[in-house]
Amino acid sequence: MLKFYTQFSVDNCHDLDAILAVAKTWLNGSPHSSFNADNLEPLTLQTPGPLLQGSEKIQIAHCYESDYQGLGVRHENLDNKQVRWVTEIVGAKIGGRFWISVLLSCDSDTPLTHSPQAKKPYIVRLILEHFGGGQDANLTITDEPTRLQDNEADFAAISRIINGESDNMLPVVYCSADEYNRCSVDPDDLAKWLSGMAHVLVEPHRRFSFDLKEATEGKNVYLGAVGIYWPNGGLTRVLPGDRFATGNDLAVEVARTIRDSLVTQRSIKGCSWSQLRERVSRSKIQALKQQDSAELEQFVAAFDDELKAKEEQLAAAELTINSLRSELMNLRAIKGHSGSSLLNEGQEQDLYPGERKDLVQEVMQTALKNAQPNTRMFDLIDDLVQANTPVGERSRLLAAVKHTLSQYQSMDKKTRSDIEKMGFSFEEENRHYKLMFKGDPRYKINLAKTSSDHRSGKNLVSQIRKEFF
After folding, report:
1. Exposed, middle or buried: residue 222 (CB in 10 Å: 0-12, 13-18, 19+)?
2. Is the pLDDT of residue 338 over 50?
3. Distance between CA atoms of 110 and 112, rounded to whole angstroms?
């Protein structure tokens, strides 16, 4: 049962042999292992094991060829519930790059009543600390978030990622800014959780998403939503709101989604334990071939025929897996964009949480008032109204506008602060302000610096409601 898998590049200046040293450090410090520095000392490239210690076993494999270098460590541990846990760490230098994969699986000889839970192996963190993250297209693999700047280079880079035009291998988690230019999750914590699994990018400010919408045809998340963008252009949208009580709950869901999806990915050729062992076997066979024995040649030929048949079966299975994976990603993208079986989202973005949902709810309530009771139309509309709870942000904002501006006389410091907290911004002109809502330049109204009569405040509230709500 595969519980965790990831693969990423590291700094190519390091030697492969360091993987064994990092693996020993990992086991020596693990509370779940009886291995320590002393009983791990016999494990070397010359004596690759298996090395036994209680219910644990560890072994290494390595292969050095002209176009390929690989080294792997495989650790097995039988826990007190008789579940066997297997961790495989494989490093491979291929085509001038240094790749590392980490796999965690478990199995049992007896049926399990529930699936065992597993955390991200601590060795992923140790690998990044020792080797340093490599490059993934124009992104660096790290345990820190990338805070985008409002410049052409960063805008072009995130546009390519969202449009599926970038060559990155790891998924990208994009944290959009809410109306107060804040993230719904803590990007620093999230980046540490997802180190070696995904990149975390942070939107510079709310206005950035308006331009991004044009460049990505509305595929970008916005207003505090978190988007997971896969290398093949698929999107899993994870929205904050009623489903998540806290930002931490949202972050946990993002991390779970990433982990569950990564276990389905295909490993880089030569960067898995089985592929490394296959290369070791091929090297041994090649050495035997060079002994020039006719009988041995016949045996090797038969072995090669059998191996080719297995490879053809594997290739066919991988085609099926890739097809299903592509279909799954498409379904995720469709679900992420629509979120409803009744309505497509369209191109407009919410300017505040639940804007469109609350608008549709209000339209349905108006239609319900005009519908005749005990008719099909009435029952359908009533059912939809009951099934969709309004977010309530529209009502809250309107109440705040009325409370702040219904008695408006002049723009003092407190009034301006209260208005800005609602998401309004000002453009100052000679005798009045241009009032804009949530950074959207399409909608503006004039606001006098000093009111002319006692009804100015109420008229202003009415104008704001008509223009912005």
Report:
1. buried
2. no
3. 6
Length of the chain: 469
Nearest to 255 by CA among 365, 119, 102: 119
Give the residue from 68, 115, 49 showing the smallest Cα distance to 271: 68
Rounded to the nearest angstrom, the gap between the alpha carbon of residue 213 and the centroid of all alpha carbons in its chain is: 20
Residue in the block written with tokens 């008509």:
466
Q: Say which amino acid occupies 176.
A: S
| Strand pairing class (56-64; 424-428) | unpaired
Interval 297-333: pLDDT, tens:
666 666 676 677 677 667 666 666 655 665 566 555 5
Q: By the 8 A CB rule, do 133 and 32 touch?
A: no
Residue 237 β-bridge partners: 227
Cβ count within 10 A of residue 228: 21
Which pair of structure tokens corresponds to residue 268? 């880089």
In which band, very low, low, confident or very high, does the pLDDT at 339 lie, cut at 50, 70 and 90? very low
Q: How many whole angstroms separate alpha carbon 311 and alpha carbon 317?
A: 10
Q: Where are the beta strands (DSSP E) in 177-281?
A: 199-202, 226-229, 235-238
Q: Is it the case that residue 55 has pLDDT exceeding 60?
A: yes
Q: Which residues pair with 426 in a beta bridge?
A: 435
Of the candidates 99, 28, 36, 33, the one whose C-alpha atom is nearest the C-alpha of residue 69 is 99
Of the chain, the end-to-end C-alpha distance in Å amounts to 52
Neighbour-count burial of 469, counting CB atoms closer than 10 A to its CB (0-12 exposed, 13-18 middle, 19+ buried):
middle
- pLDDT by residue (tens digit) across 448-460? 777 767 677 788 8
State the Cα angle at 309 between 294 and 7, rounded to 5°: 110
Written as one letter, the residue type at 116 is: P
> What whole-number distance in Å separates Cα of residue 347 and Cα of residue 214?
9
Residue 189's alpha-carbon distances to 167, 204, 252, 255, 447, in angstroms, are 26, 18, 10, 11, 42
Q: Tell me how crowded residue 456 is: count the other CB atoms within 10 A of its CB.
A: 18
Instruction: Answer yes or no: are the C-beta atoms of 60 and 43 closer than 8 Å.
Output: yes
pTM over 0.85: no
Tokens representing 189 are 């914590």
pLDDT of residue 180: 84
**In the structure encoding, which two tokens stand for residue 37, read together?**
């520095």
CATH class of 134-240+291-349: alpha beta
Q: State the Cα–Cα distance between residues 224 and 121, nearest whole angstrom.
A: 30
Contacts of 335 (CB under 8 A, 6+ apart): 237
